[in-house]
Fold ABC transporter ATP-binding protein.
Amino acid sequence: MSDAVTVPDRNDDAATDDPPPAVSVRGLTKTYGDGDETVRAVDDLSFDVEPGTVVGVLGPNGAGKTTTLKSMLGLVVPTSGSVSIAGVDVHGDPTAAYAHVGAMLEGARNVYWRLTVRENLEFFASLGGRRPADVRERHDELLDQLHLGEKADTPVNDLSRGMKQKVSLACTLARDVDVAFLDEPTLGLDVESAVELRRELRRLAEEDSMTVVLSSHDMDVVQAVCDRVVVMVDGRVAADDTVENLVEAFGTQAYRLTVSGLPSDARDRLDERYDVADWTTVGGQVRFEVTLPDGTAMYDLMDDLRAAGATPDRVEPTALDLEGAFLELVGGER
């Protein structure tokens, strides 16, 4: 008698009434070359993206992010494994899958520079089978939300790099898709435009229930926008959790301290033992920032300050960030 356990199909209506994931990756593997020259760019990757969420795919250079994104879009044929979008196999029925998807790949050549902004929107909508007249109201909304209205009839070639990037995003959304893949969406944007883009991505997820798969080296954008982060290292998933949980698990503890009575020679000892920065003197007090590897190190720091005859007057925790957690994760033994 077989000991195998039969697991119900996740898409079996009798087993569950839940809709399928917006994106589902199962056992995705991609190798290049043969024999001793084989390179495994993606190694048995599996994860889901639920509808209406923003998920970041992060990793150091060479981690397999680009291959993974292109495989999810059907641009790269995997060696093994599968990808489905809204329950449709991307490689088995690409036409049906593409009806749900828009993509903005890295670089400014995502749109046609000789066409105007509006002509680009109409062109990319028509590629998805939409008549321009039927989506004009949608396009007007996008132009307004991305502050492109005054440039609607301007050739893209005449726009700044940041404006071109926003046109690329608008074209990705030109036919009102369910899932948007964005690779480095803030590349070339000034601070104000990047903040506007963050706000628009959150609005799309929260108000329009759009699913966004985002890859970026801009950790501020990922931390501000993403509900969840998948971190890849060497083609595999090294972490898959919410931003908050990753920061809490891998982030370092940072504090700003204000102390009285700290002798000048004590600074050298603190610099040797701790990651200290931004020494400033205000009146009779000394202020500095310190990054600690864990919570227990704070007790050691307090002991050292008391031994030096200093009195801690104020201790302020500073915000933990995703960048510190990411570097700890991909660079450390964990």
User: Anything to note?
Assistant: The chain has two domains: 23-248, 252-331. The first helix runs from residue 65 to 72.
